[in-house]
Amino acid sequence: MREYIRFSRSRKLHTAIGIFVDILDYALLTLFCIILLCIYVFHFAAVQGDSMLPTLQDGDQLLVNALDRDPAPGEIVIINAASVGLLHDDGTPYEIEGLHKVIVKRVIAVGGQELDFDFDKGVVYVDGQALAEPYINTSTTRPVANGAFEYPIMVPEGFVYVMGDNREVSKDSRYGDVGLIPLSQIEGSVLLRIQPSFGRVN
Question: How many Cβ atoms from other residues are within 10 Å of residue 128's Cβ?
Fold first, then answer.
């Protein structure tokens, strides 16, 4: 009888240890997958400044899809502005040193699209069509001093033209030290706002 009790307790202990090891394996695997996702798939970014009002506020915390480095028009992207693109007189691009800052902007036009402005009416044109911009804080009613380009321009392949939603204060592709953004400088597209309120960003 004592031998049976001792054997029964030993078997229960062995089973408990096995369950604990299985749970630990799953926990470590889950943690490893989360770390991989955070390194290679999802990043976090914080908004600084008011250039994306009213869409994004100063201090907003964002979840970024780091795999999306070839964004479509209208997407909001995180940019590592280490180098920027300008255009020769014949429209061919060349790169110069950028701001060396991480910035958040909205993609207005991509490679192969023509971009133009009617500053009197505050209208942006992409491929000859007036762009619907329900997200902006103020219209684009004036050119910037010493701007990067004379419009219209054709955005070259491998670059995007970006602007902030708060046009009056945004430093963006209109300026020579931001210019056209090489796709290599895009860190990803914004998926969600996670703080101070949780939700999609349009």
Answer: 8
How many residues does this entry show for the chain?
Answer: 202
The answer to whether residue 105 is catalytic is yes
> For residues 157 and 166, what is the distance between their CA atoms, to the nearest angstrom?
26
Known catalytic residue at 101: no
Q: What is the pTM of this model?
A: 0.81
The predicted structure's pLDDT at residue 40: 61
- Decide: helix, strand or coil at residue 87: strand
Read off the pLDDT of residues 151-186 as tens digits, 9 standing for 90 and up.
999 999 999 999 999 998 999 999 998 999 999 999
Closest of 141, 73, 83, 132 to residue 105, by C-alpha: 73
Query: 3-state DSSP call for residue 183?
Result: helix
Catalytic residue among 8, 10, 51, 121: 51
Identify whether the C-beta of residue 43 lies closer than 8 Å to the C-beta of residue 61.
no
